[in-house]
Amino acid sequence: MAMLKIEDLSRDVLRNRTYVTIVWKDDPEKQLSLPVPLDCTVDALRAETEKALQALIRELHLQR
After folding, report:
1. What is the pLDDT of residues 14-58, one digit of tens each?
2. What is the total count of domains within the chain?
3. How far apart are CA 22 and CA 7, in angstroms?
């Protein structure tokens, strides 16, 4: 299983969105940016990142 690391949290105030960027620990060239709730706190970041990643996985499975 790939090990991921949270690299960045960005807020787009013009669009009222927040994104978290994760990178693969064994291949930092691989990056993924996912939306998280706008009011996401640092304390909730890991849980919200996991939710966003699971939502992406479900979406990709439905598109098969």
Report:
1. 999 999 999 999 999 999 999 999 988 889 999 999 999 999 999
2. 1
3. 5
The range of the structural domain enclosing residue 58 comes to: 4-62
Residues present in the chain in total: 64
Question: Each residue of 19-45: b (16+ CB within 10 Å) or e?
Answer: ebebbeeeeeeeeeebebeeebeeeee
- Rounded to whole angstroms, the Cα distance separating 34 from 36 reads 7
Element (H, E) at 6: strand 4-12
Q: Cα dist. 3→6, 14, 20, 34 in Å?
A: 10, 32, 16, 16
